[in-house]
Amino acid sequence: MTDVTAMTATQIAGLVATGAASAVEVTQAHLDRIAAVDGRVNAFLHVDTDGALAAARDIDARRAAGEELGPLAGVPVAVKDVLTTKGVPTTVGSKILEGWRPPYDSTIVERLRAAGTVMLGKTNMDEFAMGSSTEYSAYGPSRNPWDTDRIPGGSGGGSAAALAAYEAPLAIGSDTGGSIRQPGAVTGTVGAKPTYGGTSRYGLVAFSSSLDTPGPCARTVLDAALLHAAIGGHDPRDSTSIPAPVPDVVAAAKLGATGDLSGVRLGIVTEFGGEGAEPGVTAAFNEAVDTLTKLGAEIVEISCPHFRYALPAYYLIAPSECSSNLARFDGVRFGLRTGDDGNRSLEEVMSLTREAGFGPEVKRRIMLGTYALSSGYYDAYYGQAQKVRTLITRDFTAAFERVDALISPTTPFVAFPLGARTSDPYQMYLADLFTIPSNLYGGPGISVPCGLSDGLPVGLQVMAPTLADDRMYRVAAALESAVGTFTPPAL
Amino acid sequence: MAAISREEVAHLARLSRLAVTEEELDTFAGQLDVILQAVAQVGEVAAADIPPTSHSVPLTNVLREDVVTPCLTPEEALSGAPDAEEQRFRVPRILDEDVAS
């Protein structure tokens, strides 16, 4: 048997389904790979060896009993540490939840199990999903398998790095401002943010509740679509979950893989052109646009005049929601409690606990949100940002009257060196310049590798209308069929 | 002119229940100033008549049937608590000594 860790999820599922490999063999191969390389990548915060092998044995037993298993049965998956896993540590990359073992599973994790996938462990992330490099993780940064002196993106850099390092064929991320797509772009992997409300937030540790969207990460577009189909759909336990079926993203990925985009109209956002993507990114993007044209797509330029205000609006809305959501970390019900000497008041203990448990970026955002929500500033900051959100939504709606989807580079720059942007928080925020608009609007977006710049991956983003997730998979799969997938140098 | 002073950041830290250090105050004051000056760009948009969007999904009053479904046991609910007693979360004192006595 050739090395299963080099295979796609689709190939692995095929091996398991035909009995050519057992789920236990497949799982053990990935655990061995993790043991061999994760010391250099730091993609995982927790490897659940026993749980993974037990799940794999269960799949093998069910297959042996003749049970009909789903299309991803026996395929290993890595889960971002933002999702609760019953009895398995869940830290959100923060010291404040160090050692916490949740008493319940998130809906996404429940559905992964129902699909017969095997959870390998929990992946590293910027603390509370706030960041674009994993450098804000309380447990040290993950490293980019393309160049271990560079960042793997963030916040879901651990999931993306695990894919690029062949430690897992599938991974779960969460995308509030680009935390699935940007890590995908800088690691040469595929990352999709579903329509907001298309994937359940039950058991997703909240950062910004009107934006947080869990979604699939993989090395191919079809694998991402299969994972999307397995985890998506209505969940009565999430009151913002959309009661509508998930579009047939798997069929769309297969259609796209035929390489025919005739009749598809794609828009390039005028305002992104002047926003300063670095030259190597722009060159790779322009080449991909030529490729899409050759595949039959019609390309038009579209003005979305309010997109230039998306970044400032986001950095008011997301911190505001964060300052409210993170109030639950009070040292009472779960996680850290510091300074309780029997004399200090609850409020003093709470302040000492939060000071000790949160890292600098989380503190900045809590204070920024507290400021934006305070009386006297509310109208000028949070209220105005919500109005800008309306105008950005209108820009999308108008654009989708003329085109089927919008395309852009996923991120303005390729993977940067560790430490390059940590001293100036706003420079870090710019990584999400092109991904944030979709979050504010609520529509889906996907990043697919489109080329290299100086040997580092560049991603192309496809943005589609709300509940038209299938469209982005079709375009992404077509591009992938033309440019292929990208493999980093051996670790 | 700075968008935010060191004193204002100290006030925000108190409101946010963060016992920040003096050194952190210096760092955060400068960083929050840069961020606030950048995000203040939203003020350039003429939006007086534009309704605000709080959420992209227009769902309201999502209800379910009033039936009992499985939930956590008290032991499970308290399993992650820093301190618990008699099936309750145990907390540091909430009232001042003189009020409590």
Automatic annotation (TrEMBL), chain A:
GO biological process terms held by the UniProt record: translation
Active site: K80 (charge relay system), S155 (charge relay system), S179 (acyl-ester intermediate)
Sorted UniProt keywords: ATP-binding, Ligase, Nucleotide-binding, Protein biosynthesis
Reactions catalysed, as given in the entry: L-glutamyl-tRNA(Gln) + L-glutamine + ATP + H2O = L-glutaminyl-tRNA(Gln) + L-glutamate + ADP + phosphate + H(+)
Any single GO CC term annotated in Swiss-Prot or TrEMBL for this entry: glutamyl-tRNA(Gln) amidotransferase complex
Family membership noted in the UniProt record: Belongs to the amidase family. GatA subfamily.
PANTHER family: GLUTAMYL-TRNA(GLN) AMIDOTRANSFERASE SUBUNIT A (PTHR11895:SF151), TRANSAMIDASE (PTHR11895)
Subunit and interaction comment: Heterotrimer of A, B and C subunits.
Protein name (record): Glutamyl-tRNA(Gln) amidotransferase subunit A
Organism: Micromonospora sediminimaris
The organism's taxonomic lineage, starting at the top: Bacteria, Bacillati, Actinomycetota, Actinomycetes, Micromonosporales
TrEMBL record, chain B:
Alphabetical UniProt keywords: ATP-binding, Ligase, Nucleotide-binding, Protein biosynthesis, Transferase
EC number, as in UniProt: 6.3.5.-
Compositionally biased intervals (Basic and acidic residues): 85-101
Region spans: Disordered: 74-101
InterPro entries for this protein: Asp/Glu-ADT_sf_sub_c (IPR036113), GatC (IPR003837)
Catalytically driven reaction(s): L-aspartyl-tRNA(Asn) + L-glutamine + ATP + H2O = L-asparaginyl-tRNA(Asn) + L-glutamate + ADP + phosphate + 2 H(+); L-glutamyl-tRNA(Gln) + L-glutamine + ATP + H2O = L-glutaminyl-tRNA(Gln) + L-glutamate + ADP + phosphate + H(+)
Keyword Ligase in record: yes
GO BP terms: glutaminyl-tRNAGln biosynthesis via transamidation; regulation of translational fidelity; translation
Residue stretches in coiled coil: none
Enzyme class: ligase
Keyword Transferase: yes
GO molecular function list: asparaginyl-tRNA synthase (glutamine-hydrolyzing) activity; ATP binding; glutaminyl-tRNA synthase (glutamine-hydrolyzing) activity; transferase activity
Function, in words: Allows the formation of correctly charged Asn-tRNA(Asn) or Gln-tRNA(Gln) through the transamidation of misacylated Asp-tRNA(Asn) or Glu-tRNA(Gln) in organisms which lack either or both of asparaginyl-tRNA or glutaminyl-tRNA synthetases. The reaction takes place in the presence of glutamine and ATP through an activated phospho-Asp-tRNA(Asn) or phospho-Glu-tRNA(Gln).
Complexes and interactors: Heterotrimer of A, B and C subunits.
Family per similarity comment: Belongs to the GatC family.
Name of the featured protein: Aspartyl/glutamyl-tRNA(Asn/Gln) amidotransferase subunit C
Species this protein is from: Micromonospora craniellae
Recorded name of the encoding gene: gatC
